[in-house]
Amino acid sequence: MKDKLKTAIETALVAKGWPVVDFAVEHPADLAHGDYATNVALVLAKPLGEAPRKVAEQLCAALQGTLPEVASIDIAGPGFLNFHLKRSFFVDSIAEGLSQGETWGSNHTWLGKEVLIEYTSPNLFKPLHIGNLMGNIIGESLSRLFVFSGATVWRINYPSDIGLTVAKAVWGIKKLGADPNDISALGAAYRHGNEAYEADDMAKAEIVAVNQALYAGTDTELMALRAQGIATSRRQLDAICERLGTHFDTVIFESEASPLGQALVKKNLGQIFTESEGAVVYEAERSGLHTRVFLNSKGLPTYEAKDLGNFAKKQAAYPDWTTSIIVTGNEQTEYFKVIFAAIRDVFQVPAERTLEHIPTGFLTLTTGKMSSRKGNVLTGESLLEEIEEAARERAAATRAEDLAKLTEQVAVAALKYQILRQATGTNIVFDKERALSFEGDSGPYLQYTYARIRSLLEKASTVGVVPSQDSAPASAYRLERLIYQFPEVVETALAERAPHKVTQFLTTLAGEFNAFYATEKIADSTDTSAAYKATLAALTAQTLRNGLHLLGIEVPNRM
Q: What is the rounded distance in angstroms from the CA atom of residue 178 to the CA atom of residue 521?
């Protein structure tokens, strides 16, 4: 509908010989002002040299009768045009939404396009960092939005399995005699190695030697410890990703990317890369960026070179990609500007193929503390476990048939909602009590609203009330005037890379439904509009289900 309104307005401008300007068509904050509003008259006033209201009056007259879905158009304030949609539009929208089921809200804006999206990408041997957890949640939601919009999506994980972090852990395993098959022992070994590296020059030299040996692959004992640690870390990572509802199509290890990146830098030395004080650098000042080192003075590849190798692996696996996205912390924004410039130079990436970095913010607790039982830093694993522990108490008070499953669903919903309720890239203060609340502005609240609707529809069916569009009352409910906006919200959320748009809409929708149900009877066979109200309830449930799926949140049928 929004697109139809924009097209009709642009057509009217052309017909009147007026300039086609950039204008907005939006939903008014107050539904009393209509279903859509546009500022086009205010934008046109200056180039036409006329008062905005006079321009609005002429446009209003030109648009009359051009849109069959519009009941009336009026002028508000200094010259806003307000559009009121016909009753039949809402009835038809509700029927269409219900008929679409699991595809309700989807679109084809990305049909025929191939998207690579890289996210999570942790350091193996270390507990999953809270930043990796946030990246996983945001990356998974974006992946689902792309799929829902018709794209072919390839999810990619790029874990670090080589380098100084791994060397510290392997050194720690050897020194402590730790079991590389025990995930907690790996964490302890890394902490031991990291502390020794910072405090003891002799230990630092030993760790540097371990790092060089691992790159060279010359020490069988060290290589065996590294291989066992990688396997243990991967099992732990896979288990966490499964709990979060994430699967990856491709895993590219840093150790695979490293030699490729090193070779690419050497191949382009003197053309794209230059030598500087014994190192090899990419001078990006010519692009308004900054210089970065790609091979260090010892000839070893840096993260920058490895990212070239990573891209080479992705391009080889998916040569027809149209958009390549990396989701990581916002502290890497400037870094990726340089990396993308280097990638375009090395691989001659055409302008129509887009390279994007989507930043994530930082997460802290309301207490300000970042400690946990498992170490001196809050990890993604410990946070999830802590939420699950609290969620178990909430789940025990429900009518759950499977307490363990509901506990996990509620915990994941609580965590994901709090991260996805705010704009991507902003910092988040996590409030566990608020996150687990069943009353507004939380993931469990949306799950509870869905389960409640399911329950009342079951109750309605026992008294013969089944969803039908035949009994719609003369005036549209506020709920109807909100729910049809879902497809627009989905499209906007993807265009702006903003999953929080979906989160905000679902929260508003759930609140509107609960207000609707507080005043309207559904399971009442004597109410002539009960069947239509049941239709609205059914589509609200479907919208919550589809929207929560886009956030990576499962819906329980009973709570």
A: 64
What pLDDT, on a 0 to 100 scale, did the predictor assign at position 374? 37
Dihedral sign computed on CA atoms, order 397, 401, 402, 405: negative
Kindly give the residue spans of alpha helices, DSSP state H, lying in 421-442.
Answer: 432-435
Mean pLDDT (whole number) for 523-532: 93
61 burial type by CB count under 10 A (0-12 exposed, 13-18 middle, 19+ buried): exposed
Q: How far is CA 124 from the centre of its chain?
A: 23
Contacts (Cβ under 8 Å, ≥6 apart) of 202: none
The single residue listed with the structure tokens 């691992």 is 214
Beta bridge partners of 293: 281
Whether the pLDDT of residue 5 is over 70: the answer is: yes
Which sign, positive or negative, has the C-alpha torsion 59, 65, 66, 70? positive
SS3 of residue 361 by DSSP? coil
Find the helix or strand (DSSP H, E) in which 275 lies: strand 274-276
Which residue type is seen at 384?
L
User: How high is the pLDDT of residue 376?
Assistant: 47
Amino acid at 475: S
- Residue 213 is which amino acid? A
The whole-number pLDDT of residue 377 equals 61
Residue pair 237/128 in contact by the 8 Å Cβ criterion: yes
- CA–CA gap between residue 116 and residue 355 (Å, rounded): 10
Alpha-carbon distance values, 403 to 273, 413, 483 (Å): 58, 15, 31
Residue 165 corresponds to which amino acid? T
pTM of the model: 0.93
Least confident of 29-33, 153-157, 306-310: 29-33
Rounded distance between C-alpha atoms, residue 7 and residue 11, angstroms: 6
Q: Both tokens of residue 42?
A: 């205010």
Which tokens in the block code for residue 380?
A: 């993604």
Reduced to 3 states, what is the DSSP secondary structure of residue 490?
A: helix
Provide the residue count of the chain. 559
CA gap 97, 328 in Å, rounded: 35
Mean pLDDT taken over the chain: 94
Cα 313 from Cα 247, distance rounded (Å): 19
Structural tokens at position 69 = 């879905």
For residues 63 and 87, the answer to whether their CB atoms sit within 8 Å is no
Task: Name the token pair of 520.
Answer: 């309207």
